[in-house]
Automatic annotation (TrEMBL):
InterPro entries attached to this UniProt entry: STAS_dom (IPR002645), STAS_dom_sf (IPR036513)
Database matches in Pfam families: STAS
GO MF terms, alphabetically ordered: anti-sigma factor antagonist activity
Superkingdom classification of source: Bacteria
Organism: Salimicrobium halophilum
Protein name: Anti-sigma B factor antagonist
Length: 101
């Protein structure tokens, strides 16, 4: 299950994710609609408990799409396990070191 809370503050789109990003939840995540009224995106992973390879694929595609439309995209508070997964798949090398905070 995934729960997404979205709001904007100071020209920044805040996405708070809770739960798992996996084959069971990716279809729900694909429904996220981009906002045109902001310049930056802040994706909070503090409460993401699990991510599988389908979730990594979705996140890679999502971040690349966001980078086309916004001046800054950041993923913050990933757990140690998710950071390790990012390292294994060289996520930061693909999307840019500045994305992972």
């Amino acid at each position: 299950m995934i729960d997404i809370t979205q709001y904007t503050v100071d020209n920044e789109w805040m996405l708070m994710m809770r739960g798992s990003i996996d084959i069971e939840t990716v279809d729900e995540l694909r429904k996220i609609t981009l906002l045109s009224s902001v310049k930056r995106v802040h994706i909070d992973f503090e409460e993401v408990e699990f991510m599988d390879s389908t979730g990594i694929g979705w996140l890679l595609h999502f971040v690349r799409e966001l980078q086309k439309h916004y001046e800054r995209v950041r993923i913050v508070h990933p757990s140690e396990d998710i950071r390790e997964m990012f390292d294994v798949v060289e996520f930061a090398e693909i999307v840019g070191e500045e994305v992972i905070a």
